[in-house]
Amino acid sequence: LLYTIKFERMARFQVYTCVLVVGMLVTGSLNTLTKKAQNQSTAPGIYGEEHPFTHPWFQTLLMFYGEAVCLIVYEIQRSKKRRERETQNIQESDSQPEQVLTGIFVVPTVCDLIGTTLSGIGLLYVPASVWQMLRGAIIIFAGVLSVIFLKRKMYPTNWIGMGVVMAGLAMVGLSSVLGEDDSATTGVSHGEMLLGIVLILLAQLVSASQMIIEELYIKKHNVPPIQVVGMEGAFGVLFMSLLVLPVCYFIPGSGPHHSYENSLDAIAQMWNNPAILGFGLAYLLSIAFYNYFGLSVTKSLTAVHRTLIDACRTILVWVIDLIIHYFILASYGESFDMTYGFLQIGGFVLLMIGTLLYNEVIYIKCIASPRTASGFAEISADFEGSQPLLDGSLRAN
């Protein structure tokens, strides 16, 4: 009977974990697809002229709203735990998060704001699959910054993994720059595509810096990750609404009202085209659910799981984009370049191999790190408490 009960509990846990992983995969893919679909949509703006929805700063505001929703989830979880303690007359343990100054979330929020917006601007110029693959550059920047600021020791396997990732990134970037010039159909030239790639890579540098800052100044306060996401979202909403978007409105540019970015125009386009509004709401909700799913399973995920989920997310985004373009609506999604598309596939394979090497899932025996050589049981103990507060591969933007 005891064996049966344990088996049933294990089966329920496995089903629950699978649901969370699938939810994380689906919502993570929706992050990219809905954001790109907004960029590919057109609608009349505030002055009645139809034009593409090019509002990356406004999309960053939507992202922060999605992150802020996590605060509601955090409060629900905290209230539930409080009621359980009161029912069982259990004293609060020392592991409870301490009260922290909310000001420590300001710098990570600014990094999140800059990184997400740079990445969003880059998405205007590159296909969704390329954008998704280029985000793998965060491994390189996070690895180098962790050595400099966190004094982490990197082994030859880690450096080789980073080198393979760099080669994969180069192949993915070249496949885009050398591909057919679709400026006549998509309005994006080779020069703009190269600019998009550079901006996406810069965004990964900023995001890696955010991870290091969170590691240095927030993790030591024992703050739950879901609270970190929620607080950064709340601060982000305030920054965007009260400072950034008004400044963007008054900066001279080519947008409506001769503004760099006109958020009133973004709202008008969403009002005039229900599809853009739907994509925006789906993006906001997918951000919220992706963070919840990701943070719910992070503790039980190994490097293998994280790598495979991120790989599946990239493949899913790519396949769905191709299906949309060829079988649903040619103005959305992306086409496959028969000349250089296979270069992108090769780059993606190198990205996965490099990530697996970096995470020591696979290794070269003659240069394996002491952690890997001593067995996987010791890897788990060696890494306990040393992982980033919010895994870069599980972060949505």
Verbal overview:
With 397 residues, this protein is mainly alpha-helical. 70% of the residues lie in helices and 2% in strands. The protein has 15 helices and 2 strands. It has helices at 2-39, 56-88, 106-123, 128-134, 138-149, 156-177, 183-186, 190-217, 225-250, 263-272, 274-297, 303-328, 341-358, 370-373, 376-383, and strands spanning 42-44, 50-52. Strands 1-2 form a two-stranded antiparallel ribbon. Helix 1 (2-39) packs antiparallel against helix 11, helix 4 (128-134) runs antiparallel to helix 12 (303-328) and helix 6 (156-177) runs antiparallel to helix 13 (341-358). The longest helix is centred in the first third of the chain and has 38 residues, at 2-39. The chain is globular, with a radius of gyration of 22 Å. Mean pLDDT is 84; it is low at 376-389.
